[in-house]
TrEMBL record:
It comes from the Eukaryota. InterPro entries: DNA/RNA_pol_sf. The lineage of its organism: Eukaryota, Viridiplantae, Streptophyta, Embryophyta, Tracheophyta. Keywords: Nucleotidyltransferase, RNA-directed DNA polymerase, Transferase. GO terms for molecular function: RNA-directed DNA polymerase activity. It comes from Cucumis melo var. makuwa. This is RNA-directed DNA polymerase.
Length: 87
């Protein structure tokens, strides 16, 4: 005969890593690890070629608001700049 063991299962626990996403008060000086001295991205374009404009993608409104806030924060901090390409 097979004997059954009464095993009590508890809730699953996993490690969670906390990530600091920053705050509105942070400036470029507060974030030295994002220095533009390390890397700057540029998109090389040929003058005779027009860039391809992609269609806009639909996003959830709450996600779109968060993206706009983060982009604006990085523009104000000086990490992002608005690019102007020939039409």
């Amino acid at each position: 005969m097979v004997e059954e063991e009464d095993e009590v299962l508890g809730p699953h626990q996993e490690l969670v890593e906390a990530i600091n996403l920053g705050s509105q008060e942070e400036s470029k000086e507060d974030m030295p690890e994002l220095s533009t001295d390390i890397v700057v991205h540029r998109v090389p374009l040929k003058p005779e070629c027009n860039p391809v404009r992609q269609k806009l993608r639909k996003m959830k409104p709450d996600v779109l608001i968060k993206i706009k806030e983060e982009v604006q924060k990085q523009i104000e901090a000086g990490f992002l700049t608005v690019s102007k390409y020939p039409e």
